[in-house]
Amino acid sequence: MWKKSKVTDQTATGQGGIKRRSKVPGVMITQYIEELPEGKSTPDFTRKPIALTIQEGKLAIFKAIVIGDPKPTVAWKRAKGEMNDPEKFQNKYDPTSNEHTLEIPKVSGDEADTYKCYAINEYGKAVCTVVLNVIEVGFKKSKAMKKAEELPVGDPAEFRKKLKKSAGKKVEDKRDGEIDEAVWDLLLSADKKDYERICAEYGITDFRGMLKKLNELKREREEEQAQFIQHLTNLKPIEVKSEDAATFELDLELKDPSSRIFLYKDGVMIPYSKEGDSDMKHYLKQVGKKYVFTVKNLSPDDAGIYQVDVEGVNIFSTDFKIPPVDFVVKIEEVKAEERQDAIFECVTSLPMNQIVWSLKNSPLSNSDKYEITTSDDKLIHRLKIIDCMPVDAGIYTAVAGIKSCSAWLVVEADKQAGKGKKVARKTTQAGGSGADLSKIAAEQQEKNKKEMAEALEAAKKAQAEKEAAAAKARAEAEATLAAAQAAAAAQAAAAAKAAEAAFAAAKAKGMSEEDAAAAAAAAAAAAAAEAQAKAEEEVRKLAEAKAREAGLSPEEIAAAGAAAVAALRQAGQLGAGGAGQAGADGLLGEGADAGGAAGAKARRHAKAGSLVPDTVKDPGVHFSAGLEDCKAIVGEAAELVCKLSSTDCKGIWYRDGQEITGSTEGMTISKEGATHKLKIHKVTEEFAGKYKFEADGRKTEAVIAVEDPPRFDAKEIEAFAATTVIKNNQRASFKISYIGREPTKVQWYKEGEELTPDINCKIETEEGHSCLRLNKLQRKDSGEIKVKIKNEFGTVEVVTNLVVLDKPTPPLGPLEIVEASSNCVEIKWRPPKDDGGCPIAHYILERNQVGRNTWKKIGLIPSEAHYKDTDVDHGKRYCYRIRAETPEGVSDVYETEDVQAGTRAYPGPPSAPKVISAFKDCITLSWVPPTNTGGTNLLGYNLEKRKKGSNLWGLINPPEEPIRTKKYECRDVVEGMEYEFRVSAINISGAGEPSAPSEFVFARDPKKPPGKVIDLKVTDSTYTTLSLSWTKPKEEEGVQDEAKGYFVEIRPAESTEWDRCNTNAIIMTFYTVKGMKSMAMYWVRVVAFNEGGEGEPQELNNYVLAMPPPVRPRFTDSKMKSFMVVRAGNSTRFNVNFVASPWPEVIWLKDGVPVSKRVTISNAEGGSQILIPSAERSDSGIYTIIVKNIVGQETFSTEIRVTDEPKPPGPVELDENVPRTVTVSWAASQDEKRDDRLYYMVMKRDSSKRTWHTVADHIFNNRFTVCNIMPGREYQFRVYAKNDMGQSAPSESPKWLITEKKDKFTLVLPESKTCNLERPPKFLVPLKLHTAPDGYECYMSCAVRGEPTPHVTWYRNNVSLNTNTNYYITNTCGVCSMLILRVGPKDMGEYKVVAENQLGRAECSTKLTVRE
Fold first, then answer.
1. Cα distance between the two ends of the chain
2. Of 372, 479, 1231, 1293, which one has the fewest beta carbons inside 10 Å?
3. H helical segments located in 621-768
4. CB 1069 within 8 A of CB 1030
């Protein structure tokens, strides 16, 4: 039974901190706190390390640049192993470039791994991974020896088990017939097609019983799972999907999404992460209902049974097996042309049915694009990429077990293809290992067999040692038993003797029979105890002595003695247990007869005592060596052999249950001592079956499998292997016969490439023979011809050679001139590259004198590529034609270059003269002789000079007196003149070509070096260049002379060496240094130069930074918007362009705090941009950009308002407060609370016009009074909500009608009465409080009555507004209104309306508040 570890807190592994991805792909950031302090940030990578594939022995470098505030610390880790060796793993930091580097010098295969780079500060960490692949070169002895040491030895069964089963798997002891619970879990999660394999692997023989119990367990499992699981499908067992990772997956729908999921390995719960970039070994990825578990950084310890539980209920189990396989030959880089096939090949150390091929971690399978094949021995694996295109390029990986190897496929585009034209399909194939993989695989197979044989031999040796140890143990046990028997016998004898003496003494004293018997029994017991004690002491001493000889510890020696005593007591219980009583019983049995009769009786009882019975039985006849299964080939002999333990026993042979006798046809039975043999003289199909040999009730069985593989007759092979020689353009045929069971597959190869039938290649195959016919053969068709025949039982092949004869190729140059004198020309050449299959018989030579049109035949030259021509004229040039001749024909011609007889071989030019010293009356020069002397000794030199500006050269030395040395002092000079010189060498033929001229030199005394340059300064700089200018140094006679040129030198701050920027001196007083590192620190100096040498350097007073001149940040776009309206749901971006130097820090704020994570900030050179995807109303606010550097900072703010078309107002109501007016009121729009810039518009339509027109706009309250309402007309009103985005749908009022009563007109003249309508002013509708946004309109209104009509005055803060043109004031029928067009902070205050007439005064006031 599996025992799971106790779960004290069943909580699936969680993660601390906030996870988010960086803008740099492949970087994961963990933020420790929710809100970062202002100006602080988590670490991030601006440049992450790049994966490397590098040859061993090279220097591997990973580079990373990190940012963060506070400055993060950087650490490196690897997945497999430590990085404690500072010599091997070197961490470096460059403060000028802010680069963190990890350098691994002389990288080897042990450093191939996955590395992680961590950047950590107090607010978070950033991590990215990078892979180092190492291409190993050559054979590694230490690695091979390590592999050999890891090979299992001992029991062959254990060795086979290790080959079949995964490493690290727990196998618990179980009773016969009992099945592990883990196996049941595997069966419950496996497909039915895998039942037989699992049963065979774990030794389950009762298949029917297994199925019965499995059905019961399935029902129980489904009932348990039904508590937590809604649906479970698509269970996929664990597989190695990519390099260094294995996955298994399932589709799972939980009833409660909060249910906990646990992962177990071999019964022990293991933690896992839900983040793929976590450091944990196991992680879970959930996509909808699909759960994918991944095991990273695979090792042999990861093998075992993995189990997934939900709330303690098992739902899935899978067995992860890791075969101990490795790559003997790894895949190599392939370069293929476009539309060409490419092939990767590798060899594994153990046979595998198939390995995993992948491209960029995506598994590949057989398709129209990829062809995956495996050799017959399962060791050679190939991946063929068909019709390569540029998109197929990349890193391909082969995975076997947990081992992997990778290589690039490089696809080169066809440059010759026309634009827009498709490249033609190529029939050639690129790639493939250069090694003979078949040979390597055969060697590996032999190696595996040898290792298996060695393991079996070691197992047999261990078994023999085990049997010897068992035999020794049995001998010791028998010795102990003998000692116990002897002790029991001695004990019984002593007891009998003591009993007899005691009985006699008792009788002599006159005791009764009973008392005498009791005394005898007591004496016998005492004697027996004494004998037992002596025997135990002797056995203890013997056992302790043996343990001491074996070198055991004192505790183990004491334990061995105690064990021997215990064994003696156990063995002696039956024989000596009743010895004491035996004497007494003997005496009582004889009555009163004492003396010798009693003693004899006691002795007889002692001899007949019940000792340990002899349990050793004769085993009878058994097999020393049983029959073994064998494979027999049709037509050959086969033999079965077994060996018995006895030579006298006879046995019977059976085949398929039928007895075989000596008369059975085709078989012979023989016996040699204890060895029995059954020989089949000529095997045929009917001899296949099960054979049994039975002797003395013992039997042994074996199976003979008859195979009929293809094979050749020895004479056929000899005849076929003979080399076939034919002439060019002829035909050749190869025929061979074979035997073997059909169907067979016959393949013909030429130079390893399989042949297919075409016009010049015919393949004819019939039963028992095959023929290859090749037509129109050329010399290039020569090579190895191989035929390969295969059927279900095996493969056979035979090789021959084809030689096609042809005329030789032309002789080869270059021509070697052995001698070219005035009377002889001796030349050599190289033989033809291909002699056409026949040795060169001789060469045919022709000669032509240069300048003539005729060729003279010299004749046939022996086969040696050498000729000496003595018929030449001095000074003439000759050209030769050479042809090679064999029995197959004459080659094409090889024409040599011209050769001069007795040539006037002039020497080559010497080196340009070098000025050693210069004075006003003498210039000393030297030169180097020419490398080409013309074949003769040099006689001297001619030296010439020329004034500057002249074209005439004058000879310095007399023509008849050449200069004999390589140095000369020229005194024929004029002071102050500038000269140049050249020299020519002279041999027997004359003077050769002159050398190149020397440098110009003045005939004057040496100059003094110049002084320091003046006013050295920096005129301009960028991130990569630096411009300098200076003034030439002053001349001081006798101290420092005029400068002729300048050298500019720089020195990085971290270096002590000066680097010269210009190799040749410049004459200008300005220079631009290029190729500098951005923001790096440099020291700069300038050195003046003239003929007297270099002067003292002049340095800048301070170091220089490689950066442009400091520029305060400044915004370059004068038309940037300060206000933007964005529709909700749309994305918006805001660009800001600026100039600044050095590169500034850019910070974006929203309403004074850092922008949220929803906002994407993109910074580029000279600008920054924010992007709000799918804007929401909460994104509204004032966005501020801060651009700052060491010079200063600049800010700019813009208001972004996110809104949408408003929702319509609520129901509209109408009311008449004042005659001929209608007060329109409505419920507020739902957006009024969310949008502080929302206002309303009122439209009116009457029955007379039937058109809508606006009566009021920019209303910020929910009421409006409409005037001039005419009785008898029907009115209707609409109210719209409006904002910056637009207006809403209207809300319509009910129809409004004041019926005009038209009674019959009757004129009644009333009595004239005086009617006094005068009344003091009174406000019917007072002013209301107003709050308006800055920049918007504000409309105030009230209603007043009075007779006579009162005079209305508006005041703000007690200041009259009636004459202020900024306010629009109206008074219509008592409705007083005032409109402020653009409300500002200055309009805030108390507003008052005063109505006055002669009868009184009334006033009404309100307050106006302006929002920003």
1. 77
2. 479
3. 714-721
4. yes
Cis geometry, peptide bond prior to residue 1113 (ω within 30 degrees of 0) = no
pTM for this one? 0.30
Q: 1063 Cβ partners below 8 Å, 6+ apart?
A: none
Cα 1109 to Cα 882, 1020, 1088: the distances in Å are 74, 7, 27
Helix, strand counts (H, E) of the chain: 11, 97
| Burial degree of 861 (CB within 10 A; 0-12, 13-18, 19+) | middle
CA distance 731 to 1302: 131
Q: State the Cα–Cα distance between residues 1164 and 1171, nearest whole angstrom.
A: 14
Give the per-residue pLDDT at 102.
92
CA angle 419, 423, 425 (to 5 degrees): 175
Most distant CA atoms of the chain, gap in Å: 189
3-state DSSP of 451-490:
HHHHHHHHHHHHHHHHHHHHHHHHHHHHHHHHHHHHHHHH
Distance CA 757, CA 763 (A): 6
Summarised one tens digit per residue, pLDDT across range 803-860 is 999 889 999 888 888 887 777 888 889 999 888 888 888 899 999 988 888 898 888 8
Is residue 943 within 8 A of residue 968, CB to CB? The reply is yes
Q: What is the pLDDT of residue 484?
A: 64
The tokens for 1013 are 């340059």
Confidence at residue 11, expressed as pLDDT on a 0 to 100 scale: 33
d(CA 1401, CA 969): 129
Do 398 and 374 contact (CB within 8 A), yes or no? no
Q: Distance between CA 959 and CA 962 in Å, rounded?
A: 6
Residue 1042: per-residue pLDDT: 87
Token pair of 1001 as six digits: 């030199």
The number of residues making up the chain comes to 1412
For residue 526, the SS3 value is helix
Return the residue matching tokens 């909580």: 11
Low-confidence ranges of the chain (pLDDT < 50): 1-15, 139, 141, 144-145, 147-176, 574-618
Three-state secondary structure along 196-245?
Answer: HHHHHHHCCCCHHHHHHHHHHHHHHHHHHHCCCEEEEEEEEEEEEEECCE
* CA–CA distance, 948 with 999 (Å, rounded to integer): 11
Q: Are 1249 and 1255 in contact (CB under 8 A)?
A: no
Taking only the tens place, the pLDDT of each residue in 1108-1166 is 888 889 898 888 888 888 888 888 989 999 988 888 899 999 998 999 888 999 998 88
Specify the pLDDT at position 1376: 93
1227 phi and psi angles, rounded to 5 deg = -75, 145
Give CA–CA dist 1013/1034, Å, rounded: 8
Beta-bridge partners for 21: 28
Task: For 24-76, give the DSSP string.
Answer: STTEEEEESSSSPPTT-EEEEEEE----EEEETTS-EEEEEEEEEESPPEEEE
Distance CA 679, CA 695 (A): 18
DSSP secondary structure letter of residue 711: B
Report residue 1096 as tokens.
Answer: 């003292």
What H or E segment, with its residue span, contains residue 573?
Answer: helix 554-576
Q: What is the DSSP string of 976-994?
A: T-EEEEEEEEEETTEE---
Instruction: Using alpha carbons, select from 749, 748, 744 the residue that is nearest to residue 793.
Output: 744
Q: What pLDDT, on the 0 to 100 scale, is given for residue 382?
A: 92
The confidence score (pLDDT) of residue 280 equals 80
Q: In what helix (H) or strand (E) does residue 104 lie, and over which residues does it extend?
A: strand 99-104
Q: Give the DSSP per-residue string, 1036-1087.
A: BTTTB----EEEEEEEETT----EES-SS-B-SSEEEE--PPTT-EEEEEEE
What does the pLDDT read at residue 590? 37
